[in-house]
Amino acid sequence: MSTAYPLPTNLSTTTVTNTASLLRIVALGLISAAAIASRLFAVINFESIIHEFDPWFNYRATRVLASQGFYEFWNWFDPTAWYPLGRVVGGTVYPGLMATSGVIYNFLHAFHLPVDIRNICVLLAPGFSALTAWATYMFTKEMKDESAGLLAAAFIGIVPGYISRSVAGSYDNEAIAIFLLMFTFYCWIKALKTGSALFGTLAAVFYFYMVAAWGGYAFITNMIPVHALTLMLMGRFSSRLYVAYCSWYAIGTLSSMQVPFVGFQPVRTSEHMGALGVFGLLQIVAFAQLARSHLSSKQFQNLLTVSVVAMGVVGTFGFIALTYMGWIAPWTGRFYSLWDTGYAKKYIPIIASVSEHQPTAWPSFFMDLQLLIFLFPAGVILCFRELRDEHVFVIIYSVVASYFAGVMVRLMLTLTPVVCVSSAVAFSSLIDTYLDPTQPEGEEESEADSSNGTNTAATPSKKEKAKKPAASTSALNDIVTAATSQSSSKSKSKGIWGLDTRLIVIVNAIGMLSFFVFHCTWVTANAYSSPSVVLASTNPDGSQHIIDDFREAYYWLRQNTPQDAVVMSWWDYGYQIAGMADRPTLVDNNTWNNSKSHIATVGKAMSSSEEVAYPILRKHDVDYVLVIFGGLLGYSGDDINKFLWMVRIAQGVWPDEIQEPNYFTPQGEYRVDDRASSAMKNSLMYKMSYYRFAELFGGNNAMDRVRQQTMPKVGPTLDYLDEAFTSENWIVRIYQVRKEDLLGRDLKSANAFAQGKKKKKSKPVSRRKAIPV
Amino acid sequence: MKWSAFLPLFLLPAAFAATKDKDAVREQLIDLAAKGNGLIKLDSKTFDLLTLPSRDWSASIQFTALDRRRRCAPCKEFDPSWNAVAKAWSTAPKEHRDTHFFGTLDFDEGQTVFQKLGLASAPLVYVYPAAEGPRQLPNGKTAPSKYDFSNGFEAEPLANHLSSHTPIPIPYRAPIDWARWATFISGILSLVLTLRFISPILQSRWTWAAITVLTSLTMTGGFMFTRIRGTPYTGPDGSWIAGGYQNQYGQEVQVVALIYGTLSFAFLMLTVIVPYQSSASRQRMQVYLWSAVIMLIYSVLVTIFRLKNRGYPFKLLL
């Protein structure tokens, strides 16, 4: 026997197994700790605060749930959102996230641990990331072995593509959804492998949880049927598949219909029809299999095949007919825009306007996944080598998810798990090969190598391959043998000679992994841990300077305005105003279907002149208008940069009154300085943003630091609005809408009168001309 | 020509002459439109007729520069759609058709109009609403409105937009793309016919592996970004790499996919091929070779990434 390095011989197999399992538990514990810890940058750098936009609504809803109980939450009608429509929150929300926090809250309080609900919300995502790591471990274990599972868990624990949606404070549906996604997939794979109805039911239960938690459940709804269909097309129909799929589909669909927001969608919309169709197909195929096993006549079998095909065709046409007759709703716009990428921009500008719905450039992939992104194809190839049923799943998942991630930045989140799994398979295969101490010349089998507790499971199969000595020496032959090794694995010896070869590969691998860790830490700390409610900048001396304009302004609203004062802003800030200022808003981030005209109304008010906007504001009882302005500080996410979307959305409803080209200069530039178009200069948004801006510079040229343009010396004037509040760095500006003039004049002339200006009269033209002498 | 006869009349300032002319002008325009297959080829004089201040018809006018010397590629791209929509309008019922006209003004035919309107770019579409009569806009607007090209140069959105200015919607129907259907059907047919010969290829897992890997490589190289945003293959100055983190050119997809592919391949060689080598020295050489390839290409990748993301603090060998 020859080994590359000495192995301890006095160890019993039990010791090895026990040590390996202990090491696995310790490793998983450490991975969980790392996953949680790396998500705490946001809390350490800033504070325990809810991030961004949507989380503020989830937080507000969770507070209602925690303080008033589940039934109150279920029946909660929120009159302050979408003023004056209001919103039936219980029926228009995926309650899984809030329910989870509520359960944790009540659980802790039952033990007299008075944890604040906010801290539960802030720390929910990091906690669930540890569970995701575990679920990914279980999933990858089914693909290869425990060592690949541990690697995959470590990858998903710290990979930025997942951290971006799950830092502490990012209290959004995705925080728990990725765990549910991975665990549902694990249960499905397990059910498929064992043919167990128990695991099929478990998959259905977690599918139900996923449906209750995230709109992205449609991904599972389509992934599992596509997998089942592919297996059938590959001729791999089995009773295991039948049991797994039917138990998942029947229980999962029935339970998913219990979520009020989903309701009858699973039987009425095209997104869910694939699952139903595959369910029907499975019954037909299963029946055919059964009939075949009981029949002998050749002709009858042919007849059977024909009738099965005919039934499939009839079923497909049935679906199409039902869609045309309106019984099944066609693909929804959101879903459709994934396939026809120009669709959203044309027909649903609200969706296209969201930054996370933009397509992904390659640097984002590398930033979010780093070395995993190029290990991922290698892992897919390794899956093709074995091609068991569960590998087919990973392969389909990888193609579908990489397409989706390319179309929309936010779907990077669904790509990340499969990239982690697949690259863990590739990486652990590499490490297995080069840690394996057996050298190819050895005739006898070595003992189980115990140097690495995690790859014990992989070794026995390899040792079988290492039996026969080399026969051919041609390099081409080697490659051919390697490629076909699956079928003829025993014909050729396999292994690595020498220690230096092992060392270089292993050292290289460890180097790459540690680089990955550094990369992830840097990206997490710098790119994904900003709450975006609080901004940070660096002072000249390197210390951190906190810019807290948002909360300053929202608290001003809270303290200085009546409880029922209606605030108008662009929809991005609706949830924050509701959460932090506690005031009714016209529009918010919940862009449900019939809200289009409401959002367009706000867009129209913002993009038309004061005279046109004022009746709109008064009709909607608007008391305050809030705009975000970054020109002083160079904060690029401000309303002037989002302005074109407001124009576009308003144009969709009032094409005669609002036209996008009017907001560009004749040269087609988007300018805010002297050369800005008149529609731009007269728009309410422009006026509110730059009102008194030039005065700040005391006679010098006022500079907009976002657009890098010099503003005119004389800024815009406002007749229908009063400046009410401007935050420290001018990021948030709040204007009060004036009431109608008491004397019945229009506000413009009233204003002119108050300033002591004479009413302009049409000056009679002098008839006599001055005669030059 | 017919219209030259009444032109002096039209130029008369007297109001009664203008109303009388209006009908004459409309007859004139109807004639012209009928001649040009629903589209009036304008010059600066007919332009003035079409946009008569006392018009009780509406008009949509394309400003373009089709002459080769003008080098207006978008004009050429847009022209067929415009003609198709104008032609579709000529099939509308007569009582509606004669209240809206389509015109095309080429830069070389009517430079004065371009100057008068202050137009600096082409193509442009202006819709002139009716200034008088029953089809006058309720808000009394007579100034032309501009068509927004943000939906592209296709005929469909153009027809949709113009339909809101015409008395009845433009009966435009997208022509059936026979060539596309023919390719599609012949593709399916040839697939079915050669199925017997190519079925070993289709049943080979490595065909599918190649398809899968190539798809994911192009996608992760940012192919969809270039498709959706329509970014050019290279920059205007010939550079292949676009500055900025959220931007890229077409060529970057190829380079990045190639880099990812090479790295993947090197990993596969180390894992799958190298252990099956039959001679120790050759195996050692290959291990060193592929390790070096990984190190080197990975460094190149990180360097390119640093070009895109200036703040990235790490680098490898390069």
TrEMBL record, chain A:
Recorded topology in the membrane: Multi-pass membrane protein
Pathway assigned to this chain's UniProt record: Protein modification; protein glycosylation
EC number(s) per entry: 2.4.99.18
Species of the source: Dendrothele bispora (strain CBS 962.96)
Record's protein name: Dolichyl-diphosphooligosaccharide--protein glycosyltransferase subunit STT3
Transmembrane annotation, as ranges: 21-44, 88-108, 120-140, 146-163, 175-191, 197-220, 241-261, 273-291, 303-329, 365-384, 391-409, 503-525
Cofactor requirements of the protein: Mg(2+); Mn(2+)
Start and end residues of each stretch annotated as Disordered: 437-470, 754-773
Domain Oligosaccharyl transferase STT3 N-terminal intervals: 23-422
Function of the molecule: Catalytic subunit of the oligosaccharyl transferase (OST) complex that catalyzes the initial transfer of a defined glycan (Glc(3)Man(9)GlcNAc(2) in eukaryotes) from the lipid carrier dolichol-pyrophosphate to an asparagine residue within an Asn-X-Ser/Thr consensus motif in nascent polypeptide chains, the first step in protein N-glycosylation. N-glycosylation occurs cotranslationally and the complex associates with the Sec61 complex at the channel-forming translocon complex that mediates protein translocation across the endoplasmic reticulum (ER).
TrEMBL record, chain B:
Protein family membership: Belongs to the OST3/OST6 family.
Annotated signal peptide: 1-17
GO biological process: one example: protein N-linked glycosylation via asparagine
Predominant location: endoplasmic reticulum
Swiss-Prot/TrEMBL keywords: Endoplasmic reticulum, Membrane, Signal, Transferase, Transmembrane, Transmembrane helix
MF terms in GO: transferase activity
InterPro entries according to UniProt: OligosaccharylTrfase_OST3/OST6, Thioredoxin-like_sf
Transmembrane parts of this sequence: 178-199, 206-225, 255-275, 287-307
Subcellular location: Endoplasmic reticulum membrane
Pfam families found in the cross-reference section: OST3_OST6 (PF04756)
Ligase recorded as keyword: no
Origin species: Dendrothele bispora (strain CBS 962.96)
Functional summary from the UniProt entry: Subunit of the oligosaccharyl transferase (OST) complex that catalyzes the initial transfer of a defined glycan (Glc(3)Man(9)GlcNAc(2) in eukaryotes) from the lipid carrier dolichol-pyrophosphate to an asparagine residue within an Asn-X-Ser/Thr consensus motif in nascent polypeptide chains, the first step in protein N-glycosylation. N-glycosylation occurs cotranslationally and the complex associates with the Sec61 complex at the channel-forming translocon complex that mediates protein translocation across the endoplasmic reticulum (ER). All subunits are required for a maximal enzyme activity.
Membrane topology: Multi-pass membrane protein
Protein name as catalogued: Oligosaccharyl transferase subunit OST3/OST6 family
Keyword Transferase assigned: yes
